[in-house]
Every structure is written in C-alpha cells, then in structure tokens.
C-alpha cells in the first residue's frame, strides 16, 4: 500500500519541477545563511577555546596589581615565601604594520604551560637552554614567521602550530627587552601545586588582588555581543528563507488536495497519508539542508577571513581564517533545517490532517480578509510585546527583543495594511477595468502575502542596516579626521632613538606629539592610559562627546582625566564623576571622547600625571605636525637619517585608509547577509508569482472573454506586481528607520560600547526602491510573458473545465 | 447479502435531514440504479455506503461488516479491499500516467494482476494511451481510465456517482456499456446514482429518492 502511495505523492513534483526547485531553494537558502553564520561563530569560538587551552587562560587563579604592574621584588618575595607563582608580562608589539600580542612567561617557574608542553612533545623540540638564555627564542604560529624574519631586531624564531594566531610567546626576560618594560610583571599565575601552610598573600603582597578564573574576562566573553549580532542576522535570513518554504509547501498541499482526496477514497488511511507526507517533507528538507550546508560552508569560508580580521582588530581575538568541517555543525545545521521546514509546513500539515475526505479539490489561498485582520491584531500585539520587553529587559536581549517584536509584528500587519490601502484605491476607481484591477489585486493579496512579508522584512533590514553602516561610516570618517590630525606618525626602534628623533625634529616641525601609554588592570577590565602634552591639536580637534567646563585646562593643568565612550558607558562614568585609575590616583572626569573600533577602556591624562602614575613609561611613537606639503619630504629624510624601515614612518592618509579598511571589514558580514536576505526576498516574490500562476487562468479567462486582450492582461500582471512591491517598500521605510534607530541606540551600544548619531540617506532609499521595483518587474515578467503567449485554446479550456 | 442499508438517517449541521430512514439491500452481482432530483440525497447515500462519511442513525453493513464501529483505518481498509468508486469528475491523479492510474487501486489493495490489467486496458481501448497523462485525454477517455482503475482490483461492490454526467451522448453510451459488461464479467454488485431514467432502466433494480426517503 505504501509504495503506490509514495509514487503518487512524488509524481506531483515531477509535473511541478519548478515548485520542487523553489522548495529546495528556499530550504537551501535558509540553511545556507544560517549555517554560514553558525560556522563562522563555531570557528571563532573553537579558536578562542584552543587559545585558552594552549595558554591556560581562565584555568588558574591569578594575582594582579590594580594600580598597574607587579614588581620583581613582589614576585621574589612570593617565591621565597613558598608560593608557586609564575610571572607573565604581556603587551602589544608592533611589527611592520601588524600589531601582535607578546606574552613573556617565566618558563623556569612555569615549564608546564600547555603550549610549551605541546611544543616539547613535537617532532623537533627546541633546546631549553636556547629558549632560556640570551638572545632567547620567539615561539609563534607559522603565519607570523615571515613578519619576524624580515625584521632584524628580534631573536630567532621557532615556528609552532601549538600557539594561537597573533601571539608570540617567549621567556619573560626577552619580553621585558622587546616591550621595554624592564622589571615589570603584568600578572602572576598561581600554579596548581602549592605547598602546605603557606603564609597568607595579604601579608606578603598586600597590594595584589587574587582573581579567580571565573572572574577573568576571556575573549569568548568579550566577543559574545559580536557573535550574538551575527546570529541575529543569520536568524533573520533563516526566517526569510522559511517564508519561501511556507508558501511553496502551502501551495503544493493545496494543489494536491484532489490527489489526497482520491487516494483516501481508494482506501489509503489518513494517518498513513500524513506520515508519508511528513516523510516526504523531511526527505526534501534533508536534501535542501545538505545543499544549504554546502553553500553555507562555501559562504562561511569566503567571509571568515574578513570576520577574523574584524575580531582581531576589534577585540584582539586569537582567530585564524581557516575553516574546518565540524560534525556537530553539520548535525546542528540539519536539525535546524528539519525543525524550520516542519515549522514552516506545520500549518499545511495540520490542515491536511483535519481535511474532510469530501472536501472540495479547489485551491485555498493563504489567508482571507478575516485572517488578515486577525494576523494584523496579532502583529500589533507582537509590536507591543517588543516595546514592553525593551523596557523590562536589559542589555542586548532588550534590543533584539524589540527588533524581533517590531519586525515580526510589522510583517504580520502587512496584509491588513495593504488590503486597507487597496480598498481605498478601489473606492476611487471609476472605469470597469480599473475596478477589476483593484479587485483582482485584493484577491491576489492572500497568495502573495508571505512573499510580500519577506520583502518587507528584507527591505526594512536593508534600510536599517544600511542607515546604521552609512551613519557609522560618516561619523567614523569625521572622527578619523579629528583623531588623526598629525601629518606623520613615527615609531622609533628604542628609547634612545626616540630621544634622538625628537631632538632632530623639534626645530623643523610645528609640533612633536609623543604617543605614550601604559596598560593597567582596572576594575572594569584592561585600561590603556595615555599621556598627552599641551597642544592646540588636542584642544581643537579631539572628538569629545561629553565635557565639563574648561575641559582641556582641567586635564592638562589641574589633573583631570578624559575617558573613552566605551569605558564611560560600561562603568557609567561621566563628566563630574571621579575615577580611580590606581590606588592613590582618583581623578575627576573632565570629558568623554568617542573611540570607535576599540573594545577596551582608555583614559587620557596630562603627560606629567602619566609619569607620576607609571614612572618610566617609554615613548617610542610620535605624531608630527607639519605643513602637509612638507610631509613626504620629511618622511623620507627621517627614514634616511635614522635608518627607519618604510613602515616606521606612516602618512596620515595611509593611517586613515588603513582604519577605513578595518572599518569596512567590520561590516562586511552584515552587509553580505543583508544583500543575500534581499536576494532571498526577491526570489520569494518570483516563486510566489510563478506558483500563483496555476490559479491565474480561471481569474483572467472571463476578463479575456469580455474583451481585454492578452497583451493588456500581461501588462496588468506587471503593474500589479510592481505596485504591490512599491506599497510594501513605502511601508518598509518607516520600519527600517525604526530598526536603524534601535541598532544605533541600543544594539550597538551593547555590542560595541559606542553610540552613533543617526544620519538619513534618502538617495540610498531611492536606489533601493528602484531595485525593488526592478526585482518585482522581473519577477512578474515570466508569468506576464506566459500570459502573452498563451494560446486562446488554453483560456477556453477554463470554461470547458467549469462546465 | 452484500450490502444492507438499514434505517439510515443523515443530516448536516444546521440543516434539515438529507436522508430520513433509508433502507435498501443489494446482493452480490446485482445492479441497482438510484435516481432522484438534485438535493434528494443520492450522492450522500453513495458516500455513506462508501464509508466516506458518517451517518447519524441506522446501520450500513457491507460484506458482513457494519460500518458504524469502524474508525478511519477500518473504513479505509474497506474502501481499499472491498469496493471501488467511479466519480462524475473522474478524479484521476493528474501527475500519474494512464497506466499508473489504472493500476493504483489494485496496488494499494495489494491485488495486482498484470494479466487482468492488460485485458482491461485492451478492453477499455486504452492500450495506446497508457503513457499519456489525464489532462491530455478527452472526458470519455478519462472516465474509461476511472472504470479501469475501479475494476482492476475486482471489487465486490462498485459505486458510481453520475459516471456519464460529464460526457456527451456517444461517450456516455460507450462508457456505460463498458462498465456494465465489466460488472457482469466480474460478478460485482453495482450501485449507480443517475438522473437518467434510460440508464436506470438498464439495471436490475431501480430505487428513487425523494425528500431523503426511498419512494
């Protein structure tokens, strides 16, 4: 009994191959976008986990000095008292144009560091005496080796895959020299094996703070918001893809009602039939899911290098750009596909299981005027729920809750809104043809609703994300002009050369602005403290977003501090508040400045204050103010005079270009998902129109018989599609702007720590509208062309069939 | 007795009774024409007999099995194994070929008989049409396929609802002749709903429904 039933069910797809392709495409597209995002996230998280395991990050208790660095004396006292601790000195190291993280470990005290153990167990382990004695060795992943080999100031390099990307591991003595931080220790790792009866820490090192692994901020936590952002976009694309699945399955079921009734009349039990159709759906979902996974893998592999660059640039996250195929990713992707397909088909399957055997074989379009009203009410409820959630919840959840409520709610209200608008137009119509056109559009609305909802979501997302990215670009470009005011940026090899360069430059340039900073451990996380000298460059250009009175004199002469926006929002510190930089240094906050692209806290004090807080901080980088025409000549002179490599003297324009390139990469994934989602929505309209074509003949045949030509009918097909798309686009505009506002004021603040002003870009909207109309025109072209070429006999058959 | 309809009542929600205390019987090999005005309940009685719908009171017994206690699975089994239906609208499966449509009921009932199917196909004049799809056939040809599908599983009872209602005079005559001859050959009983007294006159017995009752 099962065999012939399966044969009959499957025969539908043979006679409706386009429908099958549509269904598979919908499933594949939904799976592709979702699984690509998941693959990227999984790859990134695996990289974080690998790096944490290799460096034992977040596994052991640590000692830190909230006031800055730990001294060698404190370290020695602890060791003498019996405490098994290992010193770690960390800091950024610039090699050419690339910034890597240098980690120096006291390898005598901590030989069991997992990465070291793994290297020692490799095929060609390094000689320990070479690693521990001068000049030492630098251990790094293969992708960094070429950087260090081309520079001659570094010790020999040992290549190993046991280390995370962008990290160089070495003995602490080597790190001290390379970071120019002699006698400084960033943190002490408390090793697992400790002798009994140790003296309490408070008595030996009272200034140090013991931090449990759970309290240590790791990369995975830092990047959580970024990954959540990606997941949200992936989910949106998944939902848009499922609109196609829902529409196609609904139509396929409607078209098979006659077959189903016949099969039941021939003795196939309903339960068996439902199981068979469920099996058929799951099989199609499996094929579509596998296709989608393959596409998703390709997409993820294409996007991962940019995402990795963004994560490295934004968070210093140790992530490599290589994709690997993970069984759990395949399983989770397929599970999501099956779940999504069942969710999208559930309604049709439920209706099938309740369908009386004597039900008519006619097609039933999705929804009626009454159901449009009902879904409209549900939509309004969802919008209200989103708003309530945004007030009652906190953080990113509130932002995404509001977005989900707004988007789904607006999508559900769309059919009712369109129906109301079409009613208004219909009332104005006078000629019989125009009356028919409006009435026909209303009649077609239920069948097109799902595709139009998908279009609304895609357009609103496009407008929202486009406005966010363009606002960011505009703000960021202006911000770069304010921040990168020096014409040249120079990096010296060491302190001595830095002093020589300063002395050489001073008589011939407008100003030499030292860039001096130190990394401190603050209660809000790592804090980079910068010192500045009194110069008009800062007073006139620095991008302050909040300030107290007489801000610059306050900072430069009266010991106040400026903090970046991320720190201000994270710790809720604003002008008028005070901030404890280190014990004994509680400074009033004079202002807050924007600091895009930086995930960590940053503060600026006057140079003497920096010297007081952390004496002896090196100054190896400078900004040079000079008339722009002289910049190139001076750059060349600097290189010649001090034998500096090209990368050590950088023009302002090059810095800006580099920063903008990093910025563009930050949004490359969201932009790609955005475009793909719009593509999926366009495809949804095309498939809806093509599938609705099967119902069109009985509707147009009577009008044809009354005297309208096929050419006129074909033109009306195009007008109908374009007009509905235009109305949807008009409704998508306010929704998109609300979306942009939420992204800029809620999601970005939570995900990245900065809030951006919202700018409007009507030119972009116009382009998007034209693209939408073009897509709707193209989507309707095929049905219109078919109608134009339809032989009169086919139209006549409608009347014969109705006899 | 193959079929017994015993004091059956049927009404639809909110409406007056469609069938009101209807009783009739049919023996193996007998043919019975059921006539009546539109809305008299002919098709409803046919649907109840085919276990496609439930009745409010009374009992229908087919091949010794009362229908009222049967659930969907039991009713499906009865339709699959015991009876066959021919509809006015043919109700062929449009995505299956003529050959596949012809064999589907027999295959569902696990009663395939290639020899008998070949004989039927030839007798119904469908040999050259086997690879075609229903939409390319005329009404008469489609109804011949429907008859072939019904007879391929050698039903004990054939239920036909206005089988010639959609056909012209010539095609009607051909279809009716074929159907009646096959019923005789297979020994099946036939319950045929029709408006036509001429067709009714060709069957063994004749019952007339009016106002939901046999008169």
Please report the number of helical segments of chain A: 27
Summing up helix and strand content along with how strands pair, one would put the structural category of chain B as alpha/beta
Please tell me the overall pLDDT of chain B.
89
What's the number of structural domains of chain B? 1
Gyration radius from CA atoms of chain A, angstroms: 33 Å
Uncertain residue segments of chain A: 361-367
Residue-averaged pLDDT of chain A, rounded?
82
Largest contact between chains: A-B, 28 and 30 residues
In total, how many beta strands of chain B? 10
| Mass-distribution shape of chain B | globular
- CATH T-level fold name of chain B: Rossmann fold
Structural class of chain A: alpha+beta
What is the alpha-carbon Rg of chain B in Å? 17 Å
Level of helix content of chain A?
55-70%
Residues in helix, % of chain B: 25-40%
**CATH class membership of chain B:** Alpha Beta
Task: Provide an overview of this structure.
The complex is a heterodimer of chains A (803) and B (215). In chain A, 63% of the residues lie in helices and 13% in strands. Chain A is built from 27 helices and 20 strands. In chain A, β12 (511-522) and β13 form a beta hairpin. In chain A, α1 (2-15) crosses α12 (270-315), α10 (224-255) runs antiparallel to α16 (432-483) and α25 runs antiparallel to α26 (762-789). Chain B contains seven helices and ten strands. The radius of gyration of chain B is 17 Å and the shape is globular. Chain B has a six-stranded mixed beta sheet, sandwiched between helices. In chain B, strands 2-1-4-5 form a four-stranded antiparallel beta sheet, covered by helices on one side. Chain B starts with a strand and ends with a strand. Chain B has a single domain (29-51, 80-214), classed as Rossmann fold (3-Layer(aba) Sandwich), CATH 3.40.50. The interface between A and B is medium-sized, with 28 and 30 residues.
């Amino acid at each position: 009994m099962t065999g012939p039933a399966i044969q009959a069910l499957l025969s539908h797809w043979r006679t409706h191959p386009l429908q099958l392709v549509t269904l598979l495409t919908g499933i594949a597209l939904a799976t592709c976008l979702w699984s690509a995002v998941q693959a990227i996230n999984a790859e990134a998280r695996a990289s974080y986990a690998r790096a944490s395991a290799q460096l034992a990050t977040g596994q052991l208790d640590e000692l830190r000095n909230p006031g800055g660095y730990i001294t060698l004396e404190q370290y020695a006292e602890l060791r003498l008292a019996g405490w098994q601790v290992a010193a770690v000195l960390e800091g950024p190291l610039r090699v050419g144009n690339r910034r890597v993280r240098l980690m120096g470990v006291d390898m005598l005290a901590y030989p069991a560091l997992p990465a070291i153990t793994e290297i020692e167990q490799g095929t060609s382990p390094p000689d320990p005496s070479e690693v521990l004695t001068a000049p030492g060795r630098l251990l790094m992943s293969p992708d960094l080796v070429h950087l260090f080999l081309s520079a001659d100031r570094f010790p020999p390099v040992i290549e190993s895959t046991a280390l995370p990307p962008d990290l160089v591991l070495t003995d602490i003595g080597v790190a001290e020299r390379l970071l120019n931080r002699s006698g400084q220790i960033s943190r002490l790792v408390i090793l697992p094996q400790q002798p009994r009866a140790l003296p309490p820490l408070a008595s030996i090192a009272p200034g140090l703070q013991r931090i449990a692994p759970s309290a240590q901020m790791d990369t995975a936590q830092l990047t959580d918001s970024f990954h959540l952002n990606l997941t949200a976009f992936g989910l949106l694309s998944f939902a848009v893809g499922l609109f196609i699945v829902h529409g196609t399955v609904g139509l396929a079921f409607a078209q098979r009602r006659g077959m189903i009734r016949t099969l039941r009349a021939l003795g196939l039990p309903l339960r068996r039939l439902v199981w068979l159709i469920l099996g058929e759906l799951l099989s199609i979902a499996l094929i579509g899911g596998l296709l989608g996974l393959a596409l998703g893998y390709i997409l993820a592999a294409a996007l991962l290098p940019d995402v990795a660059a963004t994560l490295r640039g934004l968070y210093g996250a140790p992530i490599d750009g290589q994709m690997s195929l993970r069984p759990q990713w395949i399983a989770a992707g397929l599970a999501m596909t099956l779940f999504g397909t069942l969710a999208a088909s559930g309604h049709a399957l439920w209706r099938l299981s309740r369908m009386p055997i004597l039900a008519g074989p006619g097609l039933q379009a999705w929804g009626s005027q009454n159901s449009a009203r009902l879904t409209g009410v549900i939509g309004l409820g969802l919008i209200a729920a989103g708003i309530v959630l945004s007030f009652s919840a906190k953080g990113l959840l509130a932002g995404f809750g509001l977005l989900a409520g707004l988007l789904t709610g607006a999508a559900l209200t769309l059919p009712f809104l369109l129906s109301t608008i079409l009613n208004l137009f219909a009332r104005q119509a006078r000629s019989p043809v125009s009356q028919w056109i409006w009435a026909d559009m209303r009649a077609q609305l239920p069948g097109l609703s799902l595709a139009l909802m998908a279009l609304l979501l895609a357009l609103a997302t496009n407008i929202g994300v486009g406005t966010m990215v363009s606002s960011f670009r505009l703000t960021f470009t202006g911000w770069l002009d304010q921040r990168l005011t020096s014409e040249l940026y120079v990096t010296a090899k060491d302190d001595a050369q830095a002093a020589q360069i300063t002395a050489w430059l001073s008589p011939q340039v407008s100003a030499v602005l030292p860039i001096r900073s130190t990394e401190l451990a603050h209660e809000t996380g790592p804090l980079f403290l910068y010192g500045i000298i009194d110069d008009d460059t800062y007073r006139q250009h620095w991008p302050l977003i909040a300030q107290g009175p007489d801000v610059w004199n306050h900072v430069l002469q009266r010991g106040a501090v400026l903090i970046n926006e991320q720190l201000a929002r994270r710790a809720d510190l604003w002008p008028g508040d005070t901030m404890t930089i280190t014990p004994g240094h509680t400074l009033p906050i004079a202002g807050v400045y924007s600091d895009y692209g930086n995930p960590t806290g940053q503060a600026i004090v006057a140079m003497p204050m920096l010297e007081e807080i952390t004496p002896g901080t090196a100054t190896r980088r400078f900004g040079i103010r000079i008339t722009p025409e002289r910049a190139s000549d001076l750059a060349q002179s600097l290189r010649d005079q001090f034998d500096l490599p090209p990368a050590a003297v950088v023009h302002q324009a090059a810095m800006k270009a580099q920063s903008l390139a990093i910025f563009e990469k930050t949004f490359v994934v969201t932009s790609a998902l955005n475009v793909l989602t719009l593509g999926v929505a366009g495809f949804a309209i095309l498939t809806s129109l093509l599938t609705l074509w099967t119902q069109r003949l009985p509707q147009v045949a009577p009008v044809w018989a009354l005297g309208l030509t096929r050419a006129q009918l074909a033109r009306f097909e195009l007008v109908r599609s374009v007009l509905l798309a235009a109305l949807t686009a008009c409704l998508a505009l306010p929704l998109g702007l609300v979306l942009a506002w939420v992204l800029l004021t809620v999601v970005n603040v939570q995900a990245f720590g900065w809030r951006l002003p919202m700018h409007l870009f009507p030119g972009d909207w116009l382009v998007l509208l034209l693209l939408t109309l073009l897509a709707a025109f193209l989507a309707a072209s095929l049905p219109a062309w078919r109608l134009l070429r339809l032989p009169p006999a086919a139209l006549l058959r409608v009347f014969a069939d109705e006899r | 007795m193959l079929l017994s309809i015993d004091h059956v009542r049927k009404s639809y929600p909110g409406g007056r009774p469609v069938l009101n205390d209807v009783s009739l019987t049919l023996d193996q090999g007998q043919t019975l024409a059921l006539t009546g005005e539109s809305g008299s309940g002919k098709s409803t009685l046919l649907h109840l007999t085919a276990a496609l719908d439930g009745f409010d009171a009374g009992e229908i017994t087919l091949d010794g099995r009362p229908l009222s206690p049967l659930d969907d699975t039991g009713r499906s089994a009865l339709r699959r194994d015991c009876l066959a239906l021919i509809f006015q609208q043919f109700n062929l499966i449009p995505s299956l070929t003529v050959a596949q449509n012809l064999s589907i009921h027999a295959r569902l009932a696990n009663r395939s008989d290639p020899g008998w199917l070949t004989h039927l196909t030839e007798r119904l004049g469908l040999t050259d049409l086997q690879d075609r799809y229903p939409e390319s056939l005329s009404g008469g040809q489609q109804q011949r396929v429907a008859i072939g599908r019904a007879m391929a599983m050698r039903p004990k009872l054939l239920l036909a609802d206005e089988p010639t209602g959609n056909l012209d005079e010539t095609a009607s005559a051909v279809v009716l002749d074929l159907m009646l001859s096959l019923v005789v050959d297979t020994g099946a009983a036939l319950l045929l709903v029709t408006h036509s007294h001429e067709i009714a006159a060709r069957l063994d017995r004749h019952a007339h429904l009016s106002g939901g009752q046999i008169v």
